[in-house]
Each structure stands twice: as structure tokens, then as C-alpha cells.
Automatic annotation (TrEMBL):
Protein name: Steroid receptor RNA activator 1
InterPro entries on file: SRA1/Sec31, Steroid_recept_RNA_1
Domain of life: Eukaryota
GO molecular function: transcription coactivator activity
Entry keyword set: Receptor
All copies of domain SRA1/Sec31, residue ranges: 83-182
A Pfam family recorded for this sequence: SRA1
Gene Ontology biological process: regulation of transcription by RNA polymerase II
Phylogenetic classification of the source organism: Eukaryota, Metazoa, Ecdysozoa, Arthropoda, Hexapoda
Species the sequence originates in: Schizaphis graminum
Segments of this protein annotated with the region Disordered: 1-25
Transmembrane portions of the chain: none
Amino acid sequence: MSEGYKPYTPGWNDPPSYSFEDTVSAQHENRPKIFDRIPARVLSNAPSEQFNLENKQIPLNNEIVSNEICNDTTTIPAVSSSICDIPVEDRLSYVMSSLSDSIQKSTLPDSKKVDISKRLSRLEISWKDIQFTDVVQQKTIALVKAIKINDYAEANRLQMALMVDHTRQCNTWIPAIRQLINHHI
């Protein structure tokens, strides 16, 4: 029973028959100038605006801003202090106790508080399993400090930065902090 030659009929999910190289070269030849990169304009007042933004952010490294550079005395002392002033072995307990206090003080419904606490237990497990880099730990501490002093705009910025930059490490617990921040914004 030889079946012989059967004609090939492509299926619905077979890849197209043209090659990728041909389409890439065709795209570059007919590419309009609108997609070329335009350099940003340098404005004379741009450095001062950038400097003002830097004063309002929580420092994420061990650098201490001197008074010669920063004349802004309206910064909050808890935010402007160094993030790594907490010993490595006490960081987790500081983060968990601060977040637990914030959850208990919030006016969220009890069901939301339970859900947030469950997600934060994942934070604790990941931290104990040494799944976080030092940068993630420092940003998390900065986020907790911002929540603790009720600076929810800065906490929102730090939460988004963690969520975008360190998704794999934070995706299980960062939505809980998002709920806590959104409740206060």
C-alpha cells in the first residue's frame, strides 16, 4: 500500500512563504524620513528644572547631598536620610512591620487588608529566599519610607519604577502595595 506523493496543503497556522530578509531590506529602502531620530533641543533652563526634580526624590544610594548643592530646606528628614542606614539583617523586619502598620491604620475593608497581607507574605518569602537584588531591596525600603511618612506621590513613583524595572522580582507582591497607595491618593 504505497500512498505515493500527497500534495502539500498549508494549514491555517503555517508561517508565510516569503523570507524575512526580503521584507527587512524592502522596509529600509522605502522608509520615510518621518521615522528618523530627531535630537532633543537643549534649553537654557533645563538643568535647573532637572535639579529641582532631583531634590524631591528619595536618594537610592549611599550618597548624601551636601548643603552647598542643595539649598532646599523643605525636604522631609526621613526621606532625605540615607536609605542604607538600616542594617541588612533588619531590612526585612523594617519593611514588613512598616507595611503591616500602614495596612492596619488604613480604612480599607477587612477583605482587602487580608488580600494585601497575603501578597505581602510573598514579599517576605522572596526576601528570605534571597531573590531580591540590593537595588530592589533599596527601592523597596525607599517605597516603605515614603508610605510611612505619607508621601504617596513619591510612593506611587517608586512603586511604578519597581513594577516596570524589576517585574520578575516584584510581580507577585507589588499589586498589594499599589492597592495601599491607591487608597490614599
